[in-house]
Amino acid sequence: MTNVPKLEKLLVWGNKLSGNIPSSISNASMLKRIELQKNFFGPIPDTFGNLRHLERFQVNNNNLTTGSAIQEWSFLSSLANCRNLSLIAVAGNPLKGLLPTYIGNLSTSLQYFYAYNCELKGNIPTEIGNLSNMLLLSLDNNKLSGSIPSSIGLRNLQALDLSSNKLGGPISESICGLERLATMYLSSNKLHGPVLACLGDMISLRYLSLGSNRLSSAMPSTLWNLKDILVLDLSLNYLNNSLALDVGNLRSLANLNLSRNLLTGNISSTIGVF
């Protein structure tokens, strides 16, 4: 792409294109959007850092497997030069390897990061906390382990999906500082410890899923402060008290799943007001 100096958008998604992603794309210096998703492309070149105007980088649902695991993620280091970048989508590629620490060098303009179903393993790097304007972080359906870093308490975050990994340890209290968070999926991990009472202070929550973990505590009555929550899933844990009467405060609730815990007592009559 040496003769298209004014090209701003390259959209070829949803085809059956294959082979390597050509590094010559980086010669189109005015590119703002690259959308190559849903094809059969090979590795991601490390040259996209030359695209200083790049805003959206979408290569999800391809076949990005060629090369070593370390090389597979080196493209993130290159993309750190793209200071206007707001969206990165690499989900649905068997990239494997570790999420590198230099993810923290990406632009603070970054708002959306999709890396679900990439066969990622290892810890979530603490440097992810440098991405202060992140709105959505999706790392679900990987093999991530270790604990959820306290640095993930990004003040602008609206959606966090870490479900279906191998994360352990207690839920970090820093999560309770996410005042704008509307969606939090932490289900199908190995989290243990209590369900934090401070979750009841996260009044923006609409979808909260902590199911299929090893959480063991009384179910905090503060959860019934979430009057606008739509879905609450605490199933498949070791929660061990009866339903608080204030459960009737959840007037917007569409789905409540408390199955397979250690709850006792009677079902609250206030459920009938839903």
From TrEMBL:
<keyword id="KW-0472">Membrane</keyword>
<protein>
    <submittedName>
        <fullName>Uncharacterized protein</fullName>
    </submittedName>
</protein>
<dbReference type="Pfam" id="PF00560">
    <property type="entry name" value="LRR_1"/>
</dbReference>
<dbReference type="InterPro" id="IPR051809">
    <property type="entry name" value="Plant_receptor-like_S/T_kinase"/>
</dbReference>
<keyword id="KW-0812">Transmembrane</keyword>
<dbReference type="InterPro" id="IPR032675">
    <property type="entry name" value="LRR_dom_sf"/>
</dbReference>
<dbReference type="InterPro" id="IPR001611">
    <property type="entry name" value="Leu-rich_rpt"/>
</dbReference>
<dbReference type="InterPro" id="IPR003591">
    <property type="entry name" value="Leu-rich_rpt_typical-subtyp"/>
</dbReference>
<keyword id="KW-1133">Transmembrane helix</keyword>
<keyword id="KW-0433">Leucine-rich repeat</keyword>
<dbReference type="Pfam" id="PF13855">
    <property type="entry name" value="LRR_8"/>
</dbReference>
<keyword id="KW-0677">Repeat</keyword>
